[in-house]
Amino acid sequence: MEIEKRFSKMSKRMRSSIIRELLRDATNTSIISFGGGAPDPETFDREALSKLSQEVLTNEYQYALQYGATEGDPILKDEFIKILKERHGITGLEHDNLLITVGSQQALDLMGRIFLDEDSYVMVSHPIYLGAASAFRAYGPKFITIDLEEDGLNINQVESALKDLDKKGEISKLKFIYTVPNFHNPAGVTMSLEKRKALIELAHKYDVLILEDDPYGELRYEGERLPDIYYLAKGEGVMLLNTMSKIMSPGIRIGMIAGDKQVVAKAALAKQGADLCTPTFTQRLVARYLQQGTIFNKVNEAIEVYRKKKNLMLDALQKYVTVEGAKWTKPEGGLFIWVTLPEKYDTMKLFEEAKKVGVAYIPGAAFYVDDRTSSDLRLSFCLPPEDQIEEGIKRIAKLL
Ligand SMILES: Cc1ncc(COP(=O)(O)O)c(C=O)c1O
After folding, report:
1. In this predicted model, what pLDDT tens digit does every residue of 5-14 receive, in sequence order?
2. Ligand 1 center from residue 337 Cα (angstroms)
3. Which domains does the chain have, with CATH numbers?
4. 249 lines ligand 1 (CB under 6 A)
5. How far apart are CA 176 and CA 120, in angstroms?
6. pLDDT per residue over 27-62, tens digit each?
7. Closest by alpha carbon to 162, among 99, 106, 205, 105?
8. pTM for this predicted structure
9. Is 182 near ligand 1, meaning CB less than 6 Å away?
10. Would you say the CB of residue 364 lies under 6 angstroms from ligand 1?
11. Strand, helix or coil at 240?
12. Cα of 181 from ligand 1 centre, angstroms
């Protein structure tokens, strides 16, 4: 049977994650990898989770080993609503405002599934989180790309893109503006308060939905916490995505969408066809874990680990990278530093050379939705042990 010609249009739009391809042979231990965005496993609260797993399986097997509601575990929803209130100041959320998803990656896919058609537009930052680009791309929309600055999206570009669409009579085809306001992946930058407010104002003026994706907000190492876009907009026209991946465990695969009940209900409908429900076992485990009230003590420990690693990397960059015109972001949180080299460098080509000298990073081209070459690269400081950070940067610097 000739399989290839039977695949759907959607499947033909899908692309393998370039990060996976690049890192496939960079996982051996002789390579210092600044590649993946996985948290440091030493930060996982394994003893507590192991004990709770046993308890959940023994005492709550009737729930935790059974199918569950597509919308999610009500006990976990209670805990999320509590966190959103206590840590984000978001009040008034009910169970129907929340959908529990298999990581926030599923939430991105569901948002694509319920909003995007082939004639839709979606507004995104450039660079963009690769997983969001792949989730949205499958549905065939056109990307409107907005440059990222030190303090977040270039708001002038947002405004003129909105104006242009409006003039063309196509503003209703712009389904949402996707943004990662805190410690952007890959760029490491955080959107300023002024820009958050300006973005809301523009989105409200043109009646466009904002999709706020915030996996890193709790991983702040310096500076003042900024209010969520969702909070500032009083929930009006904003859907908020969150996840346990970076603060508890990515393997547990628990994320969520919060916001408008109609959107949540439609996303739940789409989720039914995808997987019926998020695994009940991990939902209940996370719910019981959150009830213990210790998670943010553990997050504070992780923050200490990451702050130190981030500073080691910034110090090493400062000390060894002497290429004129090279610059890099100085993130106040999250897991990534974004390095911009002079244009003559093609970081995709350089990647092969880097591997030969035993160091890996992600070339910037991976984070653009067009086929450009790029002199940017993403460095992740979370996974390598401290003593390898300086050595890895030294190797990159020598190569440059
Ligand atoms: C910006 C952003 N959104 C969403 C995700 C997906 O995370 P998860 O599906 O593990 O919640 C990631 C993961 O790296 C991310 O960086």
Report:
1. 999 999 988 8
2. 16
3. 4-44+297-399 (3.90.1150.10), 48-292 (3.40.640.10)
4. no
5. 10
6. 666 889 998 888 999 999 999 999 999 999 999 999
7. 205
8. 0.96
9. no
10. no
11. strand
12. 13
